[in-house]
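Lab notebook: predicted structure, single chain.

Context: the supervisor wants predicted structures on file for every construct in the current expression panel, including those that have not yet been purified. This is the next one on the list. No modifications to the sequence; it matches the entry in the shared construct table.
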Amino acid sequence: MSIEQLLNDYNIPTSTSGKNWQTGWIQVNCPFCNDSGFHGGFNIVGNYYNCWKCGGHNLEDIIMELLGIGYYVTKHLILSYHQPGEQQAIAKKKTPKAKEIEWPANCHICTGQHGKYLRKRNFDIRKISKDWGIQGTGPIGPYKFRIIIPIYFNGKLVSYQGRDITGRSDLRYKACPIEKEVIHHKHIVYGIDHVTNKKAIIVEIRRQLKWKTMGKRKKDFFQ
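Prediction complete. Output recorded below exactly as produced.
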C-alpha cells in the first residue's frame, strides 16, 4: 500500500530525516506511547509498523489510532491505497541489499562496562560471547556504548542488532541500516542456525496482536 500517500492525505505529521529515521522508513509520532519525537515508523518495503520506544503494532491498529476510525473502515481504507507493483518498485530502489555486513566502528570483545551490563542481567559473559558472538562498541560512532548482536542465517552474517548499555539513549535497540543488511533482520528468526532438528516451535508473538485483527489467520497459529 502507499502508506506515504495515506499519511499525507490525512495530514498526519511525518518525518524522513533525523536520528530516528532510516532509509526505507516513514516516521510518525507513535499514538500508543504519547510520542513527540517521531519514534514510530512505517516500513515501506514490508508494509509494517514499529515504534523504537514501545515496539511493533499491527498495521490496522496503528492506522485506527492515528486516524480515529473503526476497524472495518480501516480495512477498506488500506485496500483503497494498495498499489502492489508501483510501491514495491519504489521500495526496492530505496533499500539496496548488501553482499556482506560491515560491523559498526570500534567493535571489540565485551569487557568492562559491557560485561557489567551483562552480569547485571545474569548472563555469563564468556558463554554468551562464545555461543552468540556478541561484541561491544566504545564511546564513538552512531552505535556507541552498545552490545552488538550478530544475526546469522545458514552460517552467514546477514545483519546485527545493537543494544544500548547506558540507559540514556532514546533507542534501546538499533538495528543494522536496511540498505546495509544482507537480509532484513525482521525477516529472520534469530538463532535459527542453532536449531538442530527439522522442526522448531516459536512460542512468542507480539503482545499487541489482537484477536479481532487476526480474522481467519487465528487458525494459522495453532497448526
